[in-house]
TrEMBL record:
Name of the featured protein: SAM-dependent methyltransferase
Domain Methyltransferase small: from-to ranges: 157-273
Annotated GO MF terms: methyltransferase activity
GO aspect biological process, one term: methylation
Signal peptide range: none
Record key words, sorted: Methyltransferase, Transferase
Organism: Streptosporangium saharense
Keyword Phosphoprotein recorded: no
InterPro entries membership: SAM-dependent_MTases_sf, Small_mtfrase_dom
Length: 369
């Protein structure tokens, strides 16, 4: 398995990582080109269904292998192999040198492969583990420490945040997408994650994208101690339908996620600072309004605002559940079989709907009272 921490620890690795983004951009490996090459609808949809696109685009591989950008898509998005002679002919020598130096590719029996996923997105390159290998076999299993590529939920949160300025704390940073995407508008960013491998990938991605950000391991459940008090906390929480509990690292119920954030806030946010949490809420049959349900999960007398993101591709509507079929464009399940499993699971547990929710909690400000 690729070791992101080892690359960050080596001076030579740091230098090479710093030049990787530019080298990938130079060969035209962009978000737009990747979406076009795999005929996806948009970047979020591609990222959420990457394994599906990998399988469906198998017949396009010969065409992909005619350009350096296409070879990058094959290696790092489809997670497939490239014949070594074609690799040498298509990819400029400088980029080949860099990828070899960083151990991002390896050649065996005449085929070049990678163990790392590279997602071009938001004008950045985000390295993470591969969740599937080659054309079909899903490798992600159980509660491993694999670091996921950015997901539709990452974009959902970013697109609904509005302006974020000042000092930012990104909780559960994963590959670092939120902290890095918000870096330019903030005076400083710190990301924390339970998974040390995620911390290392975030550090790698800060270097690749030339962004100054600190990442450290920390567990939200046992409180966070991360230096200066922040103005904003963001958390794309590992919540969702309970059957995600099997695969999502640190999965927690939406209620627990909010309770942990509320408990951690005084130690990490300045008075008046805000926590913004994306929760995927399972709403049981018979429950009242989602907003009221979510408010009851925040203890004390804090200012809590709840935005229900019902139009989101992460929602499962009550109508879809009644009909027994997910809405077109829903990204909560992979493929038809996954969608059917999700519907069965929710119905068995008497869930009325699944509502993505952006919760804003303001830390008490004694001066303004
Ligand atoms: C849904 S992912 C979000 C990753 C990334 N922020 C994004 O938006 O793509 C949730 C992240 O929370 C991390 N996590 C889970 N439980 C945690 C905990 N108790 N403390 C800190 N991080 C946690 C996971 O390791 C994972 O990286």
């Amino acid at each position: 398995m690729w070791d992101p921490g080892a690359q960050v620890a080596r001076a030579r690795g740091v230098q090479s990582l710093r030049s990787l983004g530019e080298a990938l951009r130079e060969v035209g490996f962009t978000e737009k080109e990747t979406v076009r090459a795999l005929s996806a609808e948009d970047p979020a949809e591609l990222l959420s269904n990457a394994a599906f696109y990998a399988v469906c685009s198998a017949e396009r591989v010969p065409e992909l292998l005619t350009s350096a950008a296409g070879v990058m898509v094959q290696l790092f998005v489809r997670n497939g192999g490239v014949p070594a002679d074609l690799y040498a002919r298509t990819v400029p020598i400088a980029l080949r040198g860099l990828l070899a130096e960083l151990e991002l590719v390896a050649e065996r029996d005449g085929t070049v492969t990678s163990e790392v996923s590279v997602s071009p997105g938001r004008s950045m390159y985000l390295l993470s583990d591969q969740l599937f290998r080659g054309d079909a076999s899903i490798t992600m299993a159980g509660r491993s420490t694999l670091v996921m590529p950015p997901h539709a939920s990452s974009f959902e949160l970013l697109d609904n945040l509005g302006a974020v300025e000042g000092r930012l704390l990104d909780v559960g940073c994963g590959c670092g997408i939120l902290a890095l995407a918000l870096r330019e508008s903030c005076s400083s960013v710190v990301g924390v994650d339970l998974n040390p491998r995620a911390v290392a990938y975030s550090q790698v991605n800060a270097l690749v994208n030339g962004l100054d950000a600190d990442f450290l391991p920390a567990d939200l459940r046992s409180g966070l101690a991360v230096g200066d008090l922040a103005d904003h906390l963001v958390f794309n929480s590992p919540t969702g339908p309970t059957h995600h509990a099997e695969t999502e690292i640190g999965w927690m119920s939406a209620e627990h996620a909010l309770t942990f954030v509320a408990a951690a806030m005084p130690a990490v946010l300045r008075p008046g600072g805000t926590a913004r949490v994306l929760l995927i809420v399972e709403v049981p049959e018979g429950a009242g309004a989602v907003t009221e349900l979510v408010r009851t999960w925040v203890p004390g007398e804090r200012d809590v605002q709840v935005a229900e993101l019902r139009g989101s591709p992460l929602a499962v509507s009550a109508t879809a559940l009644a009909r027994g079929r997910l809405d077109p464009g829903c990204l909560m399940a992979d493929g038809m079989a996954g969608a059917a499993r999700l519907v069965d699971h929710l119905r068995e547990r008497r869930i009325r709907e699944v509502v993505p929710t952006l919760v804003t909690i303001r830390e008490a400000d004694p001066v303004r009272r």
